[in-house]
Amino acid sequence: MVKKQLIMEKAIELFAKQGFEATSVQQITEQCGISKGAFYLSFKSKGELIVALIDHFMMQFTSDIDHLVRYSKDDEQLLYKFYYATFTAFNKHSDFAKILMKEQTQSLNEEFLVKMHYYNRIVEENIQNMLERLYGDEVNQIKYDLVYCVKGFMSMYSELFLFHKLSLDMETLCESLVEKTRLLAKHTTIPFITKEIIGMTRTQIEEVTKEQIIDAIDQKIEEIEEPIVSESMVLLKQQLQVPNHSPAIVKGLLENIRNHPHCKWISYLIRSYFQLY
């Protein structure tokens, strides 16, 4: 296992048990069986490690939500599945979710903020696509308000188990939010958020290039030990360089890597690049 990946995985275990503040770099290095010098070759500080872990979490969360919205066949259950996937991810990774909320309001790390704008934009676009798919022209005038309402539900209701440590009935929570979302979609008559406001709040983000995707694949190929995942990555890299496979084959290769925690984001990038929706 590559040292950087080892550090991240062992740090996740310690953070889950002890929390971020109580975990020292010394404890992380002891858990990894490496020196502090080796740690600082990969990360300048524990803070940089935390940002890297949050980045990793957001890559997984964003790509999972995108896949769910784009590939779900059951419109009747789509909203419920969306909320369930959101709260399950935040509950499972509660330590990261809490630090994520804190970092978004307090961080002065420009690189981190740019990344979060990027992830937020993808999530917002997925919510908008989902609402347009479910309600069509019926919500054309209020869809941007609805996007903000759904994001508000995601944030505020997450606090119940993130900060109050309540044991929640996830199914009832999601059913309740589905009902609330439908009521807003059916009965909201005074929109506030306009396309112009959305345009001002969404930072312009440079699209990821083919060369950047190939670089990311090269890095992951060195890290991944599972043969079917690494071999699929090699074939996908070749497809980016010289396209010669059918969309069906590319989709099959993407399925081979999509559920690997370190490949979800690459799967999302390749699917977006080839527009395999």
TrEMBL record:
Pfam families the record matches: TetR_N
DNA-binding region listed in the record: 24-43
HTH tetR-type domain span: 1-61
Record-linked Gene3D superfamilies: Tetracycline Repressor, domain 2
Molecular functions per Gene Ontology: DNA binding
InterPro entries reported in the protein's UniProt record: Homeodomain-like_sf, HTH-type_Tx_Regulator, HTH_TetR
Keywords recorded for this protein, A-Z: DNA-binding, Repressor
SUPFAM superfamilies cross-referenced by the UniProt entry: Homeodomain-like
Protein name per Swiss-Prot or TrEMBL: TetR/AcrR family transcriptional regulator
Record organism: Fredinandcohnia quinoae
